[in-house]
Amino acid sequence: MPLRSRTAWMAVLLVLLSPRSGQAAGFVDATERFVVVPDRVARVMTVSQPADVLVFVLAPDNFLI
Question: Is the dihedral of CA 37, 43, 47, 49 positive or negative?
Fold first, then answer.
């Protein structure tokens, strides 16, 4: 079960960090909740060390310490 959770968080991070056309998007997360991602993501907070490294490398200005 931890692998599924870790994979879901990584998928969410990739969706949040991927370049878009500037429209809000919605998707269903791993717990079957509908989540709306805003047009512009200003800050990102991660839950694990590998995700910390990924976010820091891809978008260091959006990383929360």
Answer: positive
Quick check: 64 pLDDT over 80? Answer: no
pLDDT in tens, 18-52: 765 567 778 888 888 898 888 777 777 788 888 88
Going by C-alpha positions, the residue among 57, 49, 47 that lies closest to residue 17 is 57
Q: Are the beta carbons of 35 and 27 closer than 8 angstroms?
A: yes
Residue 51 one-letter amino acid? A
Give the C-alpha separation, 60 to 24, whole Å: 22
How confident is the model at residue 1, as a pLDDT? 46
Tokens matching residue 46 = 């991660």
What amino acid occupies position 13? L
